[in-house]
Design goal:
The protein has 355 residues and is an alpha+beta fold. It contains nine helices and 19 strands. Strand 14 and strand 15 form a beta hairpin.
Length: 355
């Protein structure tokens, strides 16, 4: 997780064994796998579980990791892809920070004229563009929430309380909005303010926690409203790996309010238990209308409840929208396809900035 690259890690293990692996440390200019958060049930519960803690806005932006030594700046994505040349405005800002060397974790996003977040895919589109025209048309703003190194001192194994203090020294006003160890009423109000500002929810983080690169533990919890939709299963793909021989990835359709066939809005295999996979494989052939080597296409009769983090505009599907982070909650045998949510309902979840 600290080397960021599996081939190099394998070579280190083969050449030097456990001792060489233990010697791997944070290295300026070499990105590390980002620490991840687990879902939290509510703001109040998360604060109670992790106190002393900090609660921060959870932005619908793109994760970035910044490395700076004097004027040499490198910026990486969540997947450790370098995007330095695509984000000159971020590079310029980081060069001006009041520190000689720093490693920062944060988010970047594009904002509307009134300061609200633009759709995620608009921010993401900047990562492949380098033209001055594209940069000027969609400027990115950074919001940093962690500091892994500052002016010669590695902080990755220090508690968040110390890293947070270093963060404020390093980036000043570019810290993500947050409050330290708030009482429950203040925490709930802060969560409401995050949603009112157009953000996804909040992050609650233990101030005693170290930075666990690449790990998804319980020291960071994300709390956000969960949208659910009742959608029609219109197909399923045969699985791979341990799901070989089982119908897995679902094709999901929203009801056409004008009486046409369901409008496809996404796919998912997340949330499917082994029991559900076996059930689908036995049950879906009863609804088959056609099939090829990869997919069984179904008559639009089965309704499934899907949880999702939102929707985004998309040209991939005919309805012009796509589900974000969709996962199966349960099947709804109590509902018919005529009871499913419509494509109008799905489009209604688009962020205001998308229109």
């Amino acid at each position: 997780m600290l080397s960021g690259r599996l081939p190099e890690t394998a070579a280190t293990a083969l050449d030097g064994g456990v001792e060489a692996l233990a010697a791997v440390r944070l290295e300026l200019g070499r990105p590390v796998r980002p620490m991840l958060a687990s879902p939290g049930s509510s703001v109040t519960d998360a604060v109670a579980d992790l106190s002393p803690c900090v609660i921060e806005y959870k932005l619908d932006g793109a994760r970035i990791q910044v490395h700076k030594v004097d004027d040499d700046v490198h910026i990486y994505t969540r997947t450790l892809r370098e995007i330095t040349d695509s984000v000159p405005e971020l590079v310029d800002l980081v060069r001006k920070l009041p520190c000689r060397s720093v490693v920062l974790d944060g988010e970047t996003l594009a904002l509307t004229d009134d300061g609200r977040p633009r759709p995620f895919q608009e921010t993401q589109s900047r990562f492949g563009s380098t033209s001055d025209e594209q940069v000027r048309a969609l400027l990115l703003s950074p919001y940093f929430f962690d500091c892994l190194h500052l002016d010669g001192e590695d902080l990755i194994d220090e508690p968040l309380a110390k890293r947070n203090a270093a963060l404020h020294r390093a980036v000043g006003d570019h810290v993500i909005p947050g409050v330290v160890d708030p009482p429950p009423i203040e925490a709930e109000a802060f969560g409401a303010s995050a949603l009112a500002a157009g953000h996804e929810g909040v992050m609650v983080k233990s101030l005693d926690s170290t930075y666990q690169a690449g790990r998804r533990g319980k020291a960071w919890l994300k709390v956000k409203p969960v949208h659910t939709l009742d959608l029609v299963v219109i197909g399923a793909e045969w699985g791979h790996g341990r799901r070989t021989g089982l119908l897995s990835n679902l094709h999901l359709g929203a009801r056409d309010p004008d009486g046409g066939p369901p409008v496809m809005v996404g796919k998912t295999f997340k949330g499917l238990t082994d029991e559900l996979l076996r059930w689908q494989t036995e049950e879906f052939p009863k609804y088959q209308r056609e099939a090829d080597d990869w997919t069984v296409y179904l008559r639009p009769e089965l309704v499934v409840e899907i949880a999702l983090d939102g929707v985004q505009a998309s040209t991939r599907y005919p309805g012009g929208v796509a589900l974000r982070f969709a996962r199966v909650v349960r099947y709804r045998p109590d509902k018919k396809a005529a009871d499913a949510d419509t494509i109008v309902d799905v489009r209604g979840l688009l962020p205001t900035a998308q229109g």
